[in-house]
Amino acid sequence: MVYVLFFLGTLGILALARRRYAREVWLAGFFTTLLAVTLVGMPLLPVVDMHKFAQPSEEEETYYEIRMVDASGEELRFDDRATPPVTGTRTSTVGGQLADEYTDDQRLEMGEFYLENAREHRQTVEAGERSVTDRLQPPRYVDDRAWTAAELEEYEAFEAIRIYEHTVVYSDDNTAIDSTEERPRVTIDPTDGTVTEHEESR
Amino acid sequence: MSAFVNYVADDGRASPLNLAVVRVLLGTYVIWRVLSLEWAAYGEWPDFHVDETIGFLHQDLFFALLPYQQWVVAGLLLSFIVGYRTRWTGGLASLLLMHMLSVKATIYLAGTVESLFVCAYLLLLFALFAEDDPLSVDGFRRTDERSLTELNAVLTEGTDRVYRLRALKWGLLAVAIIYVGSAWGKALNGPLEIWLSGAELQRDILFYGELTGIDRALGAPLVEHEWLAWVGFVGTALVQVSLFAAVVLGVSVTLPILGILGFHVSVILTLGLYFIDMLLVLSLFAAWDGAYRRLVSATDEPVRVGYDDHWSGCVRALVVLAHLDVTDSVEFVPQSDAPPALTDREKGLVLVRDGTGYRGYEAGRQLLSQFRLCAPLAVAMAIPPVRALGTRLYAAAVPARTRSLGSETD
Description:
The complex is a heterodimer.
Chain A: H1 2-15, H2 22-40, E1 60-70, E2 75-77, H3 88-100, H4 104-127, H5 132-135, H6 149-153, E3 158-170, E4 177-189, E5 194-197
Antiparallel strand pairs in A: 1-2, 1-3, 3-4, 4-5
Helix pairs in contact in A: 1-2
Chain B: E1 12-13, H1 17-36, H2 39-42, H3 60-82, H4 86-105, H5 111-128, H6 137-142, H7 148-157, E2 163-164, H8 166-189, H9 199-212, H10 219-224, H11 226-249, H12 254-270, H13 277-283, H14 288-299, E3 303-307, H15 312-322, E4 330-334, E5 349-353, E6 356-359, H16 360-370, H17 375-382, H18 384-397, H19 400-409
Parallel strand pairs in B: 3-4
Antiparallel strand pairs in B: 1-2, 3-5, 5-6
Helix pairs in contact in B: 1-3, 1-5, 3-4, 4-5, 5-8, 7-15, 8-11, 9-11, 11-12, 16-17
């Protein structure tokens, strides 16, 4: 509702901008919202805040990783470039949902989505040519590791995705990661339509 | 002169140049950014992967339109860049962009989206205060509202007027509030103790190194020395708050902005390529006019320009260009009472620099090169085919009245 009002209101103000108080009303509304959103830390689109890296970390943290599984069972870390616009932290959220929240149907649909995009992206990487428009792209937000053609050569066709849960424990003085533990949670194979949970590994 | 301008303390400047520079920078940057995003891909995500709080934005139609809307935004922004009908081209581009970003946010509201929102707010402020911006196509169109006598007076009397740059004033305030939010967010979510040690930053660096599998150049020293991490953590909050403090207190924002730029660079070196759009956003508040003044005053020789003060197209164009003459290096002399050396009834425009006279098209070209910002344009105008075409266009533009008058006096 606020969303629609914002757009209609702004259009109105643009039309009446030269009238007395029109712009003042808009500015008052906008800055009130911006201040409120900033104080509370919840975006009210299209007004956003930038509370970044604002969640305090714990001594032990968990994240989820999505890996591709090829026909011979080999695993490869996922390249987020295949599924724009997400980056690592969001992929971790999706991984967590795949492990714990989604129904099997949803897991298969999401698995299919990931596989299809991964295959497409793999083709682009293997083709190796960067078009002129690619070169003109701004740097990627979060410059994480990309797949390389050489690396992909070692793999057969992707057939499934597997979700890993990682637990990171920091050392007491926080100067290093004391231990990392990874355990497979679920394998989703849309090709066969199977979902396998790996509960036994706990 | 400071490197950055506190427009909130004083939105008046001796030159309107900063508005034009920011308009071009912002418009160009947003076009580049918007056309580089993979709009077509967002609709492919399964429907259940949605931020429920803004679920109403997750409509198939909205996603289907995104790839086309990006071109509409780009088109509107091209017009915005030259300052043509800024109120509507900037306003609609901004609203459309905000909508596209909101739809994208149903998939993922990341830092790129948020910083583009900031760019969209600035576009909108430009639209709201469009009439502040004389160095634009609209500025030229608006000269039509004034009589020839008034325009001539502007040229001959020179201007010591003050220009208001309200879009930048409100834009700076918005940016300052958003940065306070970055610091406030940590206070809001974290326990008080996180301010007393560098643990938070150490863990963040370790965590993101682990997550992305990349070790950052400056990550190791901060992780190894807690006090460095503490300085980084507390320093970040301080510079983020300092901008708002400086803005409200009306003191120079140069140090706060340099501080925030430093913070962004260290984020890139310790955590990765985050928030790079904000580097552009912050640069918009630089004192471009000061840099320009320095550039021209070092190189410019004064010139005298004789112009046909009855030729309204010429007078109107000169009035717009005169805004670029920040060092008063150009003396405009109306030909109705100019010495013969500055008069050319047939060509309309005469420019004399260092004893050398230029006429007509060439005088116009020389005048543009006088304003260093237009120097590339002046170089392009010297290329033979451009010159040939330009000369013909110029000849066609010189009013017939002038030519006939000229032949009578000859």
